[in-house]
Amino acid sequence: MAELMLTPITENEIGARNVFNTGVSTVGKGGHDYFCGHCGRKMIHNMDLSKLETPVVYQCGGCGSYNLAPEIETTDETA
Fold this sequence. Notes:
Blueprint: E1 3-5, E2 7-9, E3 18-21, E4 26-27, E5 32-35, E6 42-47, E7 56-59, E8 66-68
Parallel strand pairs: 1-5, 3-7, 4-6
Antiparallel strand pairs: 2-8, 5-6, 7-8
């Protein structure tokens, strides 16, 4: 599990993407921890955002700012 910083964006950059307010914290069942790119607060715990198939903007439940999932290099373990 890695600790990753989300990519901060402005409200004008949301476009047609869905906005998900993470509230106090969002908890998954396996993956990484993600922190707000604006204030540094832990927003998402133990999730793999690369598995989501729709473009999502994550709104920080602390400062209210908007973030995108970071670009993460994946390795093909089947090669």
